[in-house]
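Lecture notes, unit on protein representations.

Consider one protein chain, 620 amino acids long.
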Amino acid sequence: TMNIRFLTALLLAPLAALQAADGHGIERPEAPLREVVPGLRIEAQAYPDQTATEWQFRLRAPTAGESPLYENLKSADFEVAFPSGEPVTLHWSKGSHSDPGDFEPKTETLTTGKTFSLESFGGRSSDGVMPYFNLSSEGGGLIVAIGWTGDWKASFTLESDGKVRVVAGLKRTRFRLAPGEEVRLPSIVAMNYRGDQMAGQNQFRRLMLKQFTPQNHPPMTLMPVQAGVHGIFPFNGTTEEKLVKLAHDIAALKLPLDCYHLDGGWNEGGFPKGQGNPQADPARFPNGLAPVGAAVRQTGMRFLAWFEPERAMRGTWLHREHPDWLLRPTGTPEGLRYQERDGFHLLDLGNPQARKWAIESISEEIRRSDLSFYRQDFNLYPAYFWHTDEKPDEIGLREIRHINGLYTFLDELARRHPSLILDNCAAGGRRLDFEMMRRCIVLWRSDSTWGAKTFPQNVQAMTHGLSYWLPLHGLGAAATDDLALRSGMGACGGFSINYRDPKAVLALRKYLDRYLKIRPIFTGDYYPLTAHSLDKKDWIAWQFHRADLNETLVQAFRRPEATSETLTVKLQGLIAQQRYEVENFDGGKEVLTGAELMQGYTITLREKPGSAVLLIKAVK
């Protein structure tokens, strides 16, 4: 019999109920699980300013004898009491799937006795569904988040007495561990709040910004304003000479850009067939990326370079030299069969030798190329690789070891390079769980961007939807008209334009002069001012509000088939008696009280499609 090391939040910190204005209490659970398996250690961290608790789970096998068989492991199995008789609504969001509707907010009113279930798709945590959930009712609610960068599942059941049972954790588990082996399991955050749904969403945004964002730089330094090279050069068309010259050419323009962004295709074989060849193409980069990094540093910009260490294609160096480090896929559905046909392989970060090689080789490239930003992409569905040739008593174990290895890999890069900023791409926004967000920023939230047929409705809708959960994201633009630039506004921006076109540079300069002044407002509270929509017949609008700065930002878009020239919005979070100056980026200022703005402010756009940006500042 093994000792059970069980440390609950109750032992670490009292978890008081948060009483709603009408007297209803929504309590966080004192412990995440009803039953604890032998060998499971649970550590709790309280975040009292945001009335939240995080639980971390570690499972250790006995040092001697056979490991127990661990089946159907959970990280959450608890009940939370809501006011009896009041409806309970689950607010959740679609994840990223390179779809115009990525991050669309969804609601489900729970029905007594019925279970509503959600899960990730294909092995990446925010593929298909975001791992964040808001249970709201009269007077308050509870937000639950899953911290796991692989596959997860969650269910919500409304019991007859008004309690909601929450169950969450790994999608598939039936395994034994090696003697003395310890692994991490999915972590859980629970945060209770008072007020309506958006009160909870904004409290959670503040929690994410303060506790689950890299801490080695302030937010506006973490999130760059990037000069992207691929507005001029295709992925596989870059060379040392071209990139060095372009860096100096961009610097000579004296635009307020702080980052030089090189995406994929620089490695031998190019993108995508060269993934698994870790070195730079010797024909195009005879000295590696180091001369490019040195040139970028001379300009005063920071250097961002793209990597995809977890994928290896057939015939590449990794495939030839270390096939024992690689996993192959089987059983992929027809739409994903290309992974088998095209020779995709997964570098198994659960393999200590493979992980050590990845750490050493990439760390050396970071040092040699003087990188400020390391972008990690991940363009495959790992579940079909993890599942291949699984033994009956190892189901889920390969995934667990890989995700544990991923955290070790990223944490070691951060330890060796304390000022380095890690950027998490994953085919555009498919690894946005809070464990990844505490380690990485996200500069590329979806692969459905300005090249999609639905542009710009798609990227407008993504800002509307993703802002419910994450305070730091954005896009930028590949064109310099007002509609493109304003549709991609956010806490960061990458501009993949032709920097040798004087008209494009002039337009970008005008935009950046204003954008940089309002950029910090995106870290504030968020309020959708219209419903989420991709429809060309609709308007879409939202508001960001920094109470500490007494500043508000409103963005509104009239879609190309919207018949009405006006949209009336009711602003939120303002002080009723305070006077505010409303500045329209297209010209004109007026002063109104907070009460007037919250009662209804009418935006007029005579052209369609059209856009409006309003900066609202308190005045004496």
